[in-house]
Design goal:
GO terms for molecular function: hydrolase activity, acting on carbon-nitrogen (but not peptide) bonds. It comes from Exiguobacterium sp. (strain ATCC BAA-1283 / AT1b). The protein is α/β, with parallel strands linked by helices. The chain contains 9 helices and 8 strands. The longest helix is centred in the N-terminal third of the chain and has 19 residues. The protein starts with a helix and ends in a 20-residue tail after the last strand. Bound molecules: zinc ion.
Length: about 240
């Protein structure tokens, strides 16, 4: 009996030590490799979101949607479709208003909690992944960041800005720049976190980009497949293999 207990303990010890022996670098590389692309869409749901979902379905690609609370009413079915089709839901505030949202750490947290609750009531999904309006720099003070962390939220920024809001009339330039940046990240063994919006021109651009990137064997992931959030204060390093 005693021997059996010892053997059991030994097996448990071996199992534990083998998982510990996976190096931090190796673990990191599971979600941060050059071929990994995290597509993220902000400011929906709206009338363009279903077209984005159609494109993603066509290429069998999953993405992350950062939901704006004030856009949910009337778009509940779209929100549900995002969930049903296996995409990840993130939170993007209620108002998107710089002054209102950032007034204090508590106002920022409260807005995220409100949109979190709205989404939960409709879909049953309780997301703790957030992207703050206009990104975390320069608006998120240390106190804001600490309050978000304390409330259990994981903040995400991006490292590829498509500038789709700026290039509305020049989609070609937007697509070209985006693909170029994603390829450049791959060359440096760095995953790409791509910022896009649910705009009228986005579905067509997304389709173009996926037509090219899927041919190049990129791997598309959602934010909940990463071990830690990527934001401007926590930039992932590239891996060397
Ligand atoms: Zn936004």
């Amino acid at each position: 009996m005693f021997k059996k207990v010892i053997a059991c303990l030994l097996v448990i010890f071996m199992l534990c030590s083998s998982s510990v022996s996976i190096s931090a670098k190796e673990f990191h590389s599971r979600y941060n490799k050059g071929e990994m692309v995290y597509l993220t869409f902000d400011d929906g749901p709206n009338q363009y979101t279903p077209k984005l979902l159609d494109v993603l379905k066509r290429y069998d690609v999953k993405a992350t949607f950062f939901i704006l609370g004030k856009k949910i009413k009337g778009n509940e079915a779209i929100l549900q479709r995002i969930v049903d089709e296996g995409h990840t839901i993130g939170l993007h505030s209620m108002t998107h208003d710089k002054k209102t949202f950032y007034r204090s750490p508590q106002t920022a947290v409260n807005e995220m909690k409100q949109v979190q609750q709205l989404i939960f009531d409709i879909t049953g999904v309780k997301s703790t992944t957030i992207r703050v309006p206009y990104g975390s720099v320069p608006h998120m003070t240390k106190a804001h960041r600490q309050a978000m962390e304390k409330a259990g939220f994981d903040m995400w920024d991006w490292n590829v800005d498509t500038l789709d809001w700026k290039y509305k009339k020049n989609q070609k330039a937007m697509r070209y720049q985006t693909i170029k940046q994603v390829r450049a990240h791959r060359a440096y063994y760095q995953a790409s976190i791509v910022l896009m919006h649910d705009h009228a021109t986005s579905p067509e651009s997304l389709s173009y980009m996926l037509r090219h990137l899927t041919r190049e064997k990129f791997l598309f992931l959602t934010t909940d497949q990463a071990k830690e959030p990527y934001h401007f204060y926590n930039k992932w390093y590239g891996t060397s293999h």
